[in-house]
Amino acid sequence: MSTETVEPTYELTVNGVVRPVAGAHQGDSLLHVLRDRLGLPGAKNACEQGECGSCSVLVDGVLVCACLELAEAAVGCAITTVEGLAPAGAEPGDAALASDVLTDVQQAMVEAGGVQCGFCTPGFVVAIHDLLDRVPEPSPLDVREALAGNLCRCTGYGRILAAVDQVVAVRSRSNGD
Amino acid sequence: MTVLVPDRLDDALAALDSDPALTVLAGGTDLMVELNYGRRRPIDVLSLRRLAALRDWHVERSAAGAGTREDTVVLGAAVTYTTLLGDELARLLPALAQAARTVGSPQIRNAGTIGGNLVTGSPAGDTLPVLVAQEATVELASARNGLRRLPVSDFLTGPKQTARRPDELLVAVRIPVRPGRSEFLKIGVRNAMVIAVANCALVVDRERRALRCALGSVGPVPIRDPAAELWATTRLDWDGHAAPHPSVVEGFGRRMAAASRPIDDHRATAAYRRHAVGVMARRALERAWRPAA
Predict the structure, then answer these.
(1) For the whole prediction, is pTM greater than 0.80?
(2) What is the ipTM of this complex?
């Protein structure tokens, strides 16, 4: 096995786009590559040990912490970050952040006051989307368990839980029409 | 640093055979933390991500005429905690599902694997007492020597030490389905995201009229005490299934606490841990002995 330090070069499929990764360091987590090599800062870097959930992303449709994924081993996987949840065109540098490019979860987080400092918000948004895709009408316990891996130091969680309730109510109403 | 992501088990075993120094990466919940914190230099990695067979599980029916009606659940080594929580596996192996549910968060349970829990071999590993109490076996594969099986209690040799040889890959965990109740209990500082201060698994084997209890996080590996198990077994009402006398559950808890070998560390004192496992062993016996609803 070669021990010389060759810069890894590989491609990752993020939000449906194949993106070449240049200059990644050996052993880089997916989180570092997303933020520092691919210019996708939505997943936040905090604990780097899977405790806080602020780097939550979907890998092949499964909710995981990007800090615990070895980037180079994720070649060929479909990676979805918070930037990829909103309709196309919502990535940084695009016509970003008008309310019409927010998802219903993001909009509800804003309206319910679930965003304060905002650092944990992207991780929560990804985790809430994942929950509601799997369980459209979760019980209060389902919600609390599903979000147990996402830490927020500002809101006390009540307004985040209210945002989830709001999305569930709106989605089930529109499904009933 | 080389990152190998083979599609076939044979290729993975060949890679390990030619370079036994490869570090096997499953869910990443242990290894990536070490890399992120610089506790470990970048290393050559064999990722199991594309070995789909290791993420599957199935039930092996007991052979006709084997004198037992025990089935065996065969879990691929990369089966995640989330998979263990699925309805069918939770019905077959309730204590294992209980243990899986206490691990980390949804994100961690989606990534972490049963094989990773075993090979990491942390004294606090939550599935380990369950596997020991169920008398599970592991299956190790190597290109040179094929498959070998050994009991989980022999596989775990010390804190973060196992009997895995460098050229071997843990490929499966075989867990007999015991006809009877089982229970898992864990103490930590809160409900989510905690490493066990102490944990405890208990299995009632109604067919053999045996009781097996394993304590975790209170010794280098999960601890059993066959003498304490036998002491309780001979005092339980296996025919009528009446509730055990309080002196039996208390005596059992006391004996298991005495069998523990805890240490003081940043999570708890040895004295607290010894007390805690006594309470957990008692509760586990009370709960597992309740008649089926």
Answers:
(1) yes
(2) 0.93
